[in-house]
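hey
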């Protein structure tokens, strides 16, 4: 079966509004899966890349690495998926498959000659540019296709393929669970997922947000406590309180102030990434054997583990489903934090 062109929304040039177009999809190979995309989440990283804020990019660009849909065809050698399966695709669609990281199931850290192949704004093994989920169909090797359990709606599952795994992975690695106190900095697209997941893991969860504006949302999502960081009393009141702090925001923070909220031996993990270097006073770490760490999405095995966990616990993203002709409006609203908490495109409208 050959897929020639499919409808999509693309940015024709850096910072340009996205517009409807048609893009090529490769012929279905022996181990490929053809997915009819139902929903595609809008991630802030889509905007960064369309605006070429992370370095030179490939245009026209079809963003989208939060993809949920249904298998409509499979190659002759496919064993992991079959027609009719509910599936998802995350931030990458290939990797070298041979390096230590790929063999360990942490393909996001592929150390092959070209690293992993991004779902969009990347170049595949065939030398052709990759195009993402703001389209009606995509062809992906079966190894990089995830199974979406029946317990999750495809619309609320789409953001799990980036926002979900971005927060699940550090919570899983650093042991959020019963008897552990976890603070989530920021209640946005990432933070609202972190609260749900940490709560389901059994941790005592505190949200640290600039104001109390979203307090009711935070408590409804599973937070036990909610504090405003604009209140100068907050940092004194919560000193030496947390085993783990997950920072989901990209804004400038006083790292020393937040590190003082950790217990001895605690860890602060960054998943939000400021666009420039930030100062850290080393004595903030030495005093108390504290750690400042980073985390980036997850490999295929852990992403599947996350989807299964979310299905088991009834966790999905809080979404606003939009038609494709509202993508540019949604980008503007993301930049002003006017979304609770993730935009998802109904790709039937493309």
């Amino acid at each position: 079966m050959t897929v020639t062109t499919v409808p999509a929304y693309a940015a024709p040039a850096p910072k340009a509004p996205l517009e409807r177009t048609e893009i090529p999809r490769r012929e279905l190979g022996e181990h490929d899966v053809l997915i009819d995309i139902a929903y595609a989440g809008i991630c802030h990283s889509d905007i960064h890349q369309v605006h070429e804020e992370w370095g030179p990019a490939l245009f026209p660009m079809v963003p989208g690495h939060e993809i949920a849909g249904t298998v409509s065809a499979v190659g002759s050698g496919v064993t992991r998926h079959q027609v009719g399966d509910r599936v998802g695709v995350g931030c990458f669609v290939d990797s070298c498959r041979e390096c230590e990281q790929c063999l360990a199931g942490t393909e996001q850290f592929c150390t092959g000659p070209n690293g992993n192949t991004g779902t969009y704004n990347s170049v595949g093994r065939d030398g052709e540019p990759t195009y993402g989920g703001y389209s009606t169909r995509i062809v992906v090797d079966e190894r990089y296709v995830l199974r979406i359990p029946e317990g999750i709606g495809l619309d609320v599952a789409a953001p799990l393929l980036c926002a979900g795994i971005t927060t699940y992975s550090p919570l899983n690695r650093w042991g959020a669970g019963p008897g552990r106190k976890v603070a989530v900095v920021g209640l946005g697209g990432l933070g609202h997922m972190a609260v749900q997941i940490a709560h389901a893991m059994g941790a005592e969860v505190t949200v640290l947000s600039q104001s109390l504006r979203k307090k009711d949302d935070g408590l409804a999502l599973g937070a036990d406590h909610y504090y405003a960081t604009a209140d100068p009393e907050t940092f004194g009141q919560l000193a030496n309180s947390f085993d783990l702090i997950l920072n989901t925001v990209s804004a400038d923070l006083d790292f020393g102030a937040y590190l003082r909220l950790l217990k001895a031996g605690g860890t602060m993990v960054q998943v939000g990434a400021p666009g420039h270097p930030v100062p850290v006073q080393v004595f903030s770490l030495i005093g108390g054997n504290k750690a400042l760490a980073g985390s980036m999405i997850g490999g295929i095995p852990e992403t599947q583990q996350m989807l299964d966990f979310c299905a088991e616990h009834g966790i999905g993203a809080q979404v606003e489903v939009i038609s494709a002709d509202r993508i540019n409006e949604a980008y503007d609203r993301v930049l002003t934090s006017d979304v609770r908490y993730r935009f998802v495109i109904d790709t039937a409208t493309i």
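The domain at 5-162+298-349 is CATH 3.90.180.10 (Quinone Oxidoreductase; Chain A, domain 1). The chain has a mean pLDDT of 96.
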